[in-house]
Amino acid sequence: MPHHDHDSSLRHRLGRTLRTPVGVTALIACLLVASVAVLGPVLLGDRAARIDTDAINQGSSAAHLLGTDQLGRDIAARVVVATRLTLRLTLLAAVIGVGGGLLLGVAPAVVGRRAGRLITAVVGVLVAFPGLLFLLFLATVFGVGTTGAVFAVGLAMVPPMARLVQNLTASVAGSDYVAAARILGVGRFRMVVRHLLPNIAEPSVLFAAQATGGVLVAFSGLSFLGLGVQPPQYDWGRLLNEQLNRVFVNPAAALAPGAAVVLTGLMFGLVGEVFAQAGGRRAPRAEEPVPPSLPPAAGEAAAGGDGGVLVRARDLRVTFPGGRQAVRGVSLDIGAGEAVGLVGESGSGKSLSALALADLVPHPGRVSAGTLRFDGDDLRADPRLGTELAMVFQDPMASLNPALRVGRQLAEVAEVHLGASRARAAARAVERLGAVRITAPERRARQRPHEYSGGMRQRAVIAMGLMGKPKLIIADEPTTALDTVVQRQVLGLLAEVREESGAALLLISHDLAVVAQVCERVLVMYAGLIVEDLPVAELLGGGAAHPYTRALVGAALTMTTDPGRELATIPGRPPEPGETGTGCAFAPRCERARERCHDDTPGLTDLGAGRQVACWYPAGPAAAISHTAEATS
Q: Is the domain defined by 81-279 classed in CATH 1.10.3720.10?
């Protein structure tokens, strides 16, 4: 089961949400209703039951705030006293509905295929049946009275709850960790408790909280119709029925029970909203300690002080709850029109670094930097990049809305960011599709993403980025899912686009051959840090200085690789965020590591024009430079 940091758990996020205005309102409402339910019968029980023949059907007065009923009983006291029974029966019916929905919802994932299909079909039929008619049918089956009404309302809640849980469970049941648990022989009960329910808890709790308000209305409706609570007991629905015939004589007496139902239903809605905020991206963020950022270098803050550098980042960090840093102080420059490759193993922080530049780091990650500038503008003050930055993601199907036509999606960029008219934006979309070598662009613009091949979808995403006039194109593994022929076409297209538009390119990849085809300079990342910066020619010519870079080159298979030569391997595994301590992060896997590598963290050191390395004992010709510098210091 996926691990969630303790600060991101529902409990901690719920605590923070309760301190928001919505949370405070919901908490106060719950405490108020609970107090009335607990203390009402104790303080006003006798007054609500006292019959006074001298005060029958009186209107509102100082003695009787809402007047009296046909037996002279105080209506206000009866509304307060009825709170306990109404809430108790509502919550009991909700428990039946939630429990039954969970059982039927998870059943298809743990029982046999035939039984699972039968359960799914039954739930589908019940959901399709009109809810009100289903409720009245159940009330007739179970009979008149409190017990029958509880079961009728509770069971009526089961089908929608079960359908929700089935959909959620189906998405979780296909996960790799569930398949692994099945292979290991995990029992069905443990599978549900350990792997399924914890991962669908938040949306299920949200639905249950909001549906409880509907249960309250449904139960009160049955009592109003005479099918629920029977005399001498009474709930808000029963009181509303008793006073309805006097609504024009004493409106307060008739409207008070209805108002109680509405306000309590709103309370359950607020509770659901609290869970929605606590369980989603709107959850308030806890303040995480962020390491102090480096001050910007002298002259960097001045406009135009970047000297032809399009992107400049210093001490760029991406921190997640618990103080875990996935990017630990990256410093880089990208010149205008320059093509830079960012390489490294999976989990080294390549994609997060790029997302941090674009202000797209997903919640709950936090970005900090000593300097973060784009074309002379400070992105820390205003992260909006408009159409000056284009992103090309690894999976183009995830970047395109499957429900919209491709041309319409491209046109929206021009309409929203460039203020173009609908017709002009559509024409530009067709033009951009043609510019990325998509044949028959007018016809293709009217198609949806599923009608495109993988290479065409990637071209369409590139065209979307070109709807504006980007100064920087960030391509995150743009050729991973493509075959070799289409891969070469897409790389060629990126090179053409860069040449025609003059845009800079940041190409993220784990494939050194891909980077070598397009880029002029390579940044090598490991454990959230840049460990080497060198020209592509040096990389291909065996001039890499960092042992990690040399290992990556040695592990790459090319068409000229000797079939009899054994490929190099890197022992061990990269550290997880939070596992890095003092010293070089690559030291545990490095054959050149010495005592200093485990104690001191190396910084990037210049090795000549356009070359930097973060290593105490670099390999190759750079070693002599490093040793000379060390002796001098």
A: yes
List, in sequence order, every beta strand (DSSP E) within 458-608: 472-476, 504-509, 521-526, 529-535, 605-606
Q: Which amino acid is at 314?
A: R
2.30.30.100, 3.40.50.720, 3.40.50.280, 3.40.50.300: CATH of 311-339+352-472+483-500: 3.40.50.300
Q: Is 0.85 surpassed by the pTM of this model?
A: no
Read off the pLDDT of residues 70-128 as tens digits, 9 standing for 90 and up: 888 999 999 999 999 999 999 999 999 999 999 998 888 778 788 888 998 999 999 88
Residue 119 tokens read as 């359960």
Contacts for 24 with CB less than 8 Å, ≥ 6 apart = 18
Residue 114 CB-half CA count within 13 A = 0
Domain residue extents for the chain:
81-279, 311-339+352-472+483-500
Predicted confidence (pLDDT) per residue in 217-271, tens digit? 999 999 998 889 998 899 999 999 888 888 888 888 888 898 999 999 999 988 8
Answer positive or negative: Cα dihedral of 52, 55, 58, 61.
Answer: negative
Question: Got the DSSP string for 465-507?
Answer: HTTS--SEEEEESTTTTS-HHHHHHHHHHHHHHHHHH--EEEE
